[in-house]
Amino acid sequence: MPELPEVETTRRGLAHACVGQRIEALELRRRDLRFPLPDAMEERLVGRCITAIRRRAKYLLIDLDSGEVLLAHLGMSGSFRVLQAEDYVAKKHDHVLIYLQADQLCVFHDPRRFGFMDLFAAKQEAAHPFLVHLGPEPLSDDFTPEYLAAQLARRKGPIKPALMDQKLVVGVGNIYASESLYKSGINPRISANKAASRAPQIVAAIRTTLQAALHSGGSTLRDYVGADGTGGYFQHHFDVYERDGQACTTCDATIQSMVQAGRSTYWCPQCQPLRGRAKKT
What we know:
- There is one protein chain.
- Helix content is 23%, strand content 21%.
- It has 7 helices and 10 strands.
- The strands form 3 sheets. Strands 1-6-7-5 form a 4-stranded antiparallel beta sheet, covered by helices on one side. A 4-stranded antiparallel beta sheet has the order 2-3-4-8, covered by helices on one side. Strands 9-10 form a two-stranded antiparallel ribbon.
- A hairpin with a 3-residue loop joins strand 3 and strand 4.
- Helix 5 packs across helix 7.
- It starts with a helix and ends in a 14-residue tail after the last strand.
């Protein structure tokens, strides 16, 4: 599933190509994705100008000059790509086609149809059901060690699923939770409240990991591509994710894996011991 770096990379690509453009036409290849598409979507979008494209957690927020916001979620396999309309070759799972000025075309592609879109008045954003319960952005000033320590102190479950809770902090999905815990030397099975004292290391590791992934254009796993149609390459720099059975790049111990809350978790038993601090090598 695309995580924060992939969605932010998509946002940047879309913003570069689409902000300031007027929507000339809209083609809906189907009327539903994960949920039905917004009512009167064609009438509400065609003729409108895109004034900004923002990101909140894993949601894209496309601001229109009508005062409405088009919300888009990529789901598990969704992606946007922007190209010249004359170069477009239809693909089976191209579901929403947005025709822009200068003969540009923005295509939403989603093989599994877990993505979705919504359209609402900008003044309703703070109370929107998909946005209202979200925690702070991990790269913002609101995500401090003090905040994280206080949140973790209330939780008895394992630290890794806790970091994936979007109410605690947004955008830290399965890949980047595993990578961040490795960087902070914390075993993913340790309870969140016991890890609270190491909140400064966790915050620093999350920020370092996400910033590195953003620099690499995200991670291309299975279906993800950016708005220009190219994939990211952060997966070539994974320390533990999907490296079970391989040697740790720091200590040569064998990377291990397990399932937590239905998701695969990866860690190094020597760099991330269950008890005590990581051994120096």
